[in-house]
Sequence to fold (181 residues):
Amino acid sequence: MFLPIILILLSCHSCKGLLHPVNSGNIGVDDLYQMIQQQNKTIQQLLERDTKTVGFFARLTQRTPHLGVGQPIKFDTVITNEGNGYDPKQSRFIAPFTGLYQLSASVMSPTNAYVHCAIVKNGADVSPLYGATTDYDSDTQTIVLDLQAGDMVWVKHTGTTNEIIHNYNSYFSGFLIKQRL
Ligand SMILES: *[C@@H]1O[C@H](CO)[C@@H](O)[C@H](O)[C@H]1NC(C)=O
Fold:
């Protein structure tokens, strides 16, 4: 007794959707499940994205009489380290998340000595810093970088071994502007 209804449904072109509501383009249940899982993952990531805070600020307070060539400048006194991006042992910022960051560094040379440094990303120079021999000269560079999680940024001495960095007024700071998925 249901046969006529089935036959009507099968012969009715616009009723095909009723029998195979999701079968346009061969999408199966497994595919749909995968899609839902993927969407769910994206939703979870989006919900978490704007909850991340990364910000650090460290000062140099110890006199470094002879800087080695390529030596990282040790900003030994950590004042802010939200998100633990700054590693005081290595004196490096290690991006905890992929995103856009602002970083800033200042170096001061003492009187009668100059100092050449650079902000480096994974070892490559990004922005030079130079303190001249005029009394307590200082230089500050503020940069914006796209970093992948795990990328490292630090301040490296790029001059000769005769150079000295003053033990005050040298800083390294940065913060996450916007995380990217
Ligand atoms: C979506 O992801 C959350 C967190 O992982 C989980 O608790 C939830 O059960 C998931 N929902 C579906 C429909 O898979």
